[in-house]
Amino acid sequence: MIMNNTKKTTGKVSGIIANLVIVQVEGPVAQNEICYISHDGTDLMAEVIKIIGNKAYTQVFESTRGLKIGSPAIFEGHMLEATLGPGILSSVYDGLMHDLHEMTGIFLKPGEYTRALDPEKIWDFKPLAKGGDQVIAADWLGEVIENSIPHRIMVPFVFEGRYTIKSIVPRGLHKIYDTIAVLTDESGKDHPVTMVQYWPVKQAIKAYKEKPRPFKLFQTGVRTMDTLNPMAEGGTGFIPGPFGSGKTVLQHALSRQAEADIVIVAACGERANEVVELFVEFPQLEDPRTGRKLIERTTIIANTSNMPVAAREASVYTAMTIAEYYRSMGLKILLLADSTSRWAQALREMSNRMEELPGPDAFPMDLPAIISNFYSRAGYVYLNNNQTGSITFIGTVSPAGGNLKEPVTESTKKVARAFYALSQQRADSKRYPAIDPIESYSKYLEYPEVQESLRNTIADDWVDKVMLVKNIMIRGREASEQINILGDDSVPLDYHLTFWKSEVIDSIILQQDAFDKIDFNTPMTRQKYMLDKVINIYETNFDFDSFEDVNPYFKRIINQLKQMNYSEFQSEQFKHFENELYKIIEERKLKK
Amino acid sequence: MSPLAFQKIYTHISNITKATCTLKASGVGNEELALVHGRLSQVVKIIDNEVTLQVFGGTEGIPSNAEVIFYNRPPTLKVSDDLAGRFFNAYGQPIDGGPEVEGEERPIGGPSVNPVRRRQPSELIATGIAGIDLNNTLVTGQKIPFFADPDQPFNQVMAMVALRAEADKIILGGMGLTNDDYLYYKNVFENAGALDRIISFVNTTEDPPVERLLVPDMALTAAEYFAVDKNEKVLVLLTDMTLYADALSIVSNRMDQIPSKDSMPGSLYSDLAKIYEKAVQFPSGGSITIIAVTTLSGGDITHAIPDNTGYITEGQLFLRRDTDIGKVIVDPFRSLSRLKQLVIGKKTREDHPQVMNTAVRLYADAANAKTKLENGFDLTDYDQRALDFAREYSEYLLAIDVNIDIDKMLDTGWELFARHFNQAEVGIKQELVDKYWPVK
Ligand SMILES: Nc1ncnc2c1ncn2[C@@H]1O[C@H](COP(=O)(O)OP(=O)(O)OP(=O)(O)O)[C@@H](O)[C@H]1O
Ligand SMILES: [Mg+2]
Fold this sequence. Notes:
The complex is a heterodimer of chains A (about 600) and B (about 450). Helix content of chain A is about 30%, strand content about 25%. Chain A has about 600 residues and is α+β, with helices and mostly antiparallel strands. The radius of gyration of chain A is 27 Å and the shape is globular. The model of chain A has no long low-confidence stretch (mean pLDDT about 95). Chain B has three domains: about 10-70, Elongation Factor Tu (Ef-tu), domain 3 (Beta Barrel); about 75-105 and about 140-315, Rossmann fold, CATH 3.40.50.12240; about 350-435, no CATH class. In chain B, α6 (about 270-275) crosses α7 and α8 packs across α9 (about 380-400). β1 (about 10-15) of chain A pairs antiparallel with β5 of chain B, so a sheet runs across the interface. Magnesium ion binds near residues 247, 248, 270 and 338 of chain A.
């Protein structure tokens, strides 16, 4: 690791421009080192972002109102770190991982930094390794049960080289700062290990053996994703869309129903009321797979738009680091960030204040590299003990003016493999989720290993069917354009059929009511069943004399299928509507 | 605001730009207030012993040997119950001829509410305007702007909403308000006998534009006093936030910051969010609701100001002149209240969500029929009925001069459905149709 821990460097404030504070230092400082600037009896946390001679440029994670030249600063000898240990789940943190529930008062107070973990809580520690074992960073020493999830206590990630376990405590009750093992390094030096470790958030945790390409489906229960543009476990995706198009509603849906062991939500520079929704609902809602309350598998990083801007930038890194920590335990993590544009804007504000040469739209020049670096931390991994873990990352992007030709969208598009473009037009016509079926894509669908996994787990011809459906959607749009240009009665009747068959797919597969108690979440078996249904309709030849009959007829078909979507799968009611549907189809089915 | 004895006085200004002065001074705090040549100013930058001040009233005529006095504190407002019924300028000084308000001095633009100390908004605000109550229901603790072109009557609608909202306090933050509009608000509130619940902080077009930057923070500091200390329901009206953002861009341009889209500062999103996020529902019952005005230019919502606003607020209310009925309506397509889900069908009648959605859907059918007509295609019988429906929907529900309660809005909705469509075309859940479909 970097930096000296012996004697702390000090300095004095010599310049203040909003939350950019210049500190004249006496001694060594490191890029990204954390310091505390003393102001009126409180210590304001800051991060070094540039060093010129003996001047350290720091971004303060708080308001700098009232701060004066000459105020003392003390440098901590480490970068911004996450505190990692049992007790992270169900917590609500700010961007710097301070526990928001621990803070006193209604208003946030600058300099009130609460601890991330409860030091007094007792955990039932069970060793997984024994004295004499050879271990390296991230190897599992033991575990405690955190909200029914096995939380592995690992060799700290910062430990370099090989260690021998000198001693490890037997099964028993412990607090997080109790020493649970002593490890001896190659030079014979002993290192006590507790259940807590620290990691600098801006660096990736790479204590795993291998990171293969994502190769299997990550189910979300959202049909237009799972069926049409599937997410892969350990994959990356992003959701750009103009304001009000449904980014947050979609992310909240994912956080509720995706098949993950742990969900980490980074509310990054967005509305506080949306975070409140999670606090209020998650303790009530159940995880359909485990029956436990959703809050038990969830950690929320809330750095809402009115909270300090510099901490907003840190918040996504804090969230990613927590995700990497749990991934190393062999767990399946879903990481959500809403919105990554706000993080990029935080970078822009700072770069502006430092008078750096701006890139496109005044964003910093290295924005593409920063974004790409961040997305690359997601992934599916084989751990050193051959167990697997994954971080699936999905971020939202809020493009200025809804125009996708802007730096954040473009940089993200280069790295995220799945693209879920929300369309204003679909949102306006209340076709939710407003994911545009033609613009959007999932590169994972092209991975041979993903295709094979889809064939094995869903059906042999699944991928072909998905491709067919994508094609139908394109042809449907073309037909509708022609009808609009030429008029209902000036196009061949087939155009109407093509259009309405795509409408069946749009209404039944793509559109999904996030607020309906049945429709909101569709398991894969049901998605397959319904996809087969609509493909069947597509392949049916119907008998029509006039285009005027097409619209009302298909509206009836869609209505029955919708009723099926709203019914419990394979229930009496479901079968009743299915039977009605069958009768309607028979009315006009052309016998070969 | 007279300086106290211990305050330091300087008389050497080294640099003067259109909006800022720079001088050598020591012991100065960031964001501290100062008086430059008798004009209020605020510290925006300190490098070593060089202090840069933003002069709210502009720097015209300031000499290099002008007197500079530092206040040793950020901008503040004295809060107490005596604020009620008073009119102030952007600095919080009375402009109604009354005495200075005594009370606790609080810094404006204070810290944010801890998100975990918020309560989920759930109390409906009834305005009587169906375009709002029926389609875009407002909730206490919400923040929502009117998006309107400058020639639309947004000030009238906002005054109407404010008076009907049953708020304990109404706080008006006027930015770049014309003197006529200022007097209009004053009259309306006076005539309604509501003056004792009103507090105004006003910057008119006659005042220097940069002063506007203080108005929202003044208004919201007063709002926090009543909502937190007194558990009151406070409604804050901010008009016009476009002029506020313009003032931001003036300052940042003069400070040589690199502008981003539409010459707005790169921090526009954070600057606006800091204001709008003051809207809150407290567990104790107090709340701050913000209704703002963002004027558009030619209806363009992709401009940086409405665009950033839309990303921050919980919906927006679009005003539009409907030429078919010759009245201003609340546009059902582009308007949105994101918090309506929390109350409709729960605090209001069960049929509310379905009636709302169905009416908008049928209105969309009419819009399609209209396009067909304009493109010279024939209309079907359904198209014609949809057009007839749309006209009456606009007249009896969307127009801003409608003033009825929500049950009556729902009943009107059903009447219009039954007059123009059959039950199958309306497509509402059967049990609701059985209960509410009007019998002839
Ligand atoms: N799947 C859905 N089902 C029903 N309504 C939806 C759905 N998605 C979005 N909406 C409606 O659209 C509104 C806005 O959605 P949301 O808040 O997710 O937008 P957003 O893209 O996150 O906007 P912003 O960028 O401003 O945060 C919601 O309040 C809701 O009324
Ligand atoms: Mg959102």
